[in-house]
Amino acid sequence: MPKESPLIDRLGGTPVLKRTLDVHYERVLRDSLLAPFFKGTKMSSLRLHQLKFLRYFLSDGRMTVDVTDVMLEKHMSMFEERDLSAVHFDRFVTLFVDSLKACGVRSQGLLDETHEIMAPLRQIFVIGAQEYGGSVKSQEDAETSKEHNRKGLRRLLGLGKQKG
To answer: How far is residue 7's CA from residue 38's CA, in Å, rounded to a whole number?
Structure first.
C-alpha cells in the first residue's frame, strides 16, 4: 500500500498555507479574545515563523521533535502576564481551520485531520497556564507538576524515550 502524502501536501502545499495564514491572522486580529495577545507584534515576522512551523508540523516532522519546551518558552510571558490558556489555543485552532475552509480546503476529512494533528499541542497551553499562570501554589508543587505534565505530554505526542 503506498504511503499517504503528508497533510501539508494534501491541503495544497505552501501556497495554500501562506494564504491561510494571511486570512487566519486577519481573523485573529479582529477576534476580541485573541487580538490582545498580538498587540505590538510584528505580524510579517510572526507569519513567516508560523509558516515555517506549520510546514514542518503538518508534515511528518512533528513525529520526531518535541516542541514542548520551545513553545512554553516562546509563550511564557503571555502565560505569566496575560493569562494565556488552552481556551485561547482552542479559539486559535478553530480560526485556523475556518481559515483553511475560506482558502478553498473543502474536504471535511482534511479539516478534521488538521484539527487532530494540532490538538495535542493544546496540552502545552494547559501546562503553561498551570506552571506560569499562577495556579500552582509552591515551588515544590510547581516542579512536581511540571515534570508530571511534560512526561504526559511527551507520551501524548508519541515522543517517549525509545528503548534499545
So the answer is: 28
Residue 151 lies inside a defined structural domain of this protein: yes
Report yes or no on 162 lying in a domain: no
Total domain count, the chain: 1
Is residue 126 within 8 Å of residue 86, measured between CB atoms? yes
Average pLDDT over residues 120-125: 92
Q: What is the CATH number of the domain that holds 38?
A: 1.10.490.10
Q: Is residue 63 part of a domain?
A: yes
pLDDT confidence of residue 19: 98
Task: Report the b/e string of 45-79 with b at 16+ CB within 10 A.
Answer: eeeeebeebbbebbeeebeeeebbeebbeebeebb
Which pLDDT score, from 0 to 100, does residue 102 have? 98
Q: How far apart are the C-alpha atoms of 86 and 102, rounded to whole Å?
A: 24
Mean pLDDT of 54-77: 83
Model pLDDT, residue 78: 93
In a domain, residue 2? The reply is: no
